[in-house]
Each structure stands twice: as C-alpha cells, then as structure tokens.
Amino acid sequence: MLVLSVLSHIATVDHLKQAGLSLSVLAQFFKLGHQPDITTFATVINAILLQTSSNPNVSNVEDVLKLFHEMLHSRPLPSVVPFNQILTQLVRLKHYSTVVYLNRQMVLTGIAPDVCTLNIIINCFCHLNLIGFSSSLLGQFFKRGLQPDVCTFNTLINGFVLENRVVEALLLFTKMVEAGHFKPIVVTFSTLIKGFCMMGNNTAAMQLLTKMEERGCQPEPNVVAYSTIIHSLLKDTLYVDAMKLFLEMISRGIVADVVTYNSLIHGVCNVGQWKEATMLLNEMLSKGIFPDVPTFNVLVDNLCKEGMVVEAKSVVEIMIQRGAEPNWITYMLTLVIRGISS
Prior knowledge:
about 350 residues; about 75% helix; PPR_rpt; mRNA binding; Mito_RNA-Proc/Resp
C-alpha cells in the first residue's frame, strides 16, 4: 500500500524531525480501521523512540504515550511486540510507575503479556523497591504457560540485591538452579558477588567466583567480577589478598580495566604504598589504559593527605594536559592544594 510506504519513508529519512508526522499518519490508520503491519509499526515506533532517547523531554514522552493509546484503541489490536518496544523505552527513561500502569491497561484490553512483558514489569517493580510484587509475577509465567528465562531470574536476583536482601537472592538462585529452571551466566554470578561485597562478606564472594569456574560458566568470569571483589578486599585493607586476586586474574588472561586500577591505586595509597601506586599508574599507561578523573582524584587526595603538595600539583597539571576534564572533586582538591601552599 502506497500510504504504508510513505509512512515508513517519513520515519526512516529523518526520524528526529518527522516522528510527530509519522505518529499523526499512524493515527489516521487507526481511525480508518486499517491495521499497519509489524514492519510499519516497528519503523514508526523506532522513529519516535529514537527521538525520545536523544531528547527525553516531556513532549517526546507524551508522543510515546499518545502512540501507546492509539495502538490500544485500534482494532484489530496489534500484537504485544510493539507494546513491549514502548514499555522498554519508558523503562530506559526511568518511568517505572507509568510502565506498570500501562501494562495493566494492556491486560484489561485483552493483550496477553509474553515473557518479555513480564520481565519488563519485574524490572520496574525491582526499581520501585517492590521486590515482593516482582517475585509474585513468577506465578504469572506458569499460569500463562510461559517459561521464565535467564533474564527473569537475573532481574529478580538484582532486585533482592538492590534491597540488600542478598541471602534471599542466593536462596532464589540455588532453588532455581537445582530445579533446572535456568543456567546462570556471568551476570548472575556478578550480581551476587556485588551483593556479598556490599555486605562485606568477601569469603562468600570468593566462593561464588570459584563456583563460576567450577561450573564452566560461559562466558568465563570477567573483569567486573574480579574488580568487584578486589575493590571490596581493598576497602577492608586486605591489600595482600587483593593483589593476589589481581595477579590471578591477569594469569587467567583477563585484562584489567581502568576501574580495576582505580581500586588498586586507591587501596595502595590508603596503606601508604606510594611506590606500588606509581608502578600501577605506569603499568596502566604501558597497557594503553588511560587514567580517568577518579584515578587522578584518588592520587591528588592521597598526596594532599600526606602533605606532598608539589606532587599533587603535578598530577593536576598532567591531568589537564592529558585532556581529562576535572570534576567538582578535583576543583575542591585544587583549593585544598592552594590553601596548603599559601
């Protein structure tokens, strides 16, 4: 149909300027009783969602909501797929309560949720600190003959961790794995490791890391899992244990990133190991890992605490020369340097 191709063209050629026009043409389809196909829906939705992503102001969100309601009142009803696209975008914009409300409207209109829809709602409840509601949605899967996937359980586990209910997260993890409902991936283990590190339970975090390796988790443990534990060990001033784990990580071929080095530099500075801090900084540079603002701030902060004002000034100068944009912490530290100097 010619109008369909025009609609697709409008959305594709210049989505930032023409998304509103695409929406108005789509609205005419619904009013005339026509049902655009899934390709047309996807084209228009992507145009509007791309505009909303690049400029998430009130009017753009209103466009998304307007599209949702146009779809909701069209006959025949579209499939659940384009609705999921809209809900996903609203989640990215952190409109969690709105998404929960819109989902209720979908169900009342007769649009049955699929696995993707339920995962989206579970995620929203987790962000709203309503993990109890998230957990209850597991029953909806089985009631509707749907199978929860790894995303479902990862989201629930993360929800428990966000509420500092790490033991419950581990219980869910254990129960679901033993029942054969899902095979945990790196993200699953990394989330639990983060939770135990937040509790200060480094032993449990290390055990999970070992379990990842024993289970042959694919992909294998990554820099995030190792860096999380390294940071936690250093926070507890367990410098030797942290360095041992760092060396183990390197021996396994896992490349450290700027987050890993920031934790290490911060940790060694806190125990007065300036030589180690310098070596780590040089190691970063030799591997092509450029220090970021947090790296410089850690160095400047600790140099100031040790009364090494000249060295702190040099670090700030190097930071600016390297093109790293100072943040408010850097400026505060610079004022401290000036105060000490004067």
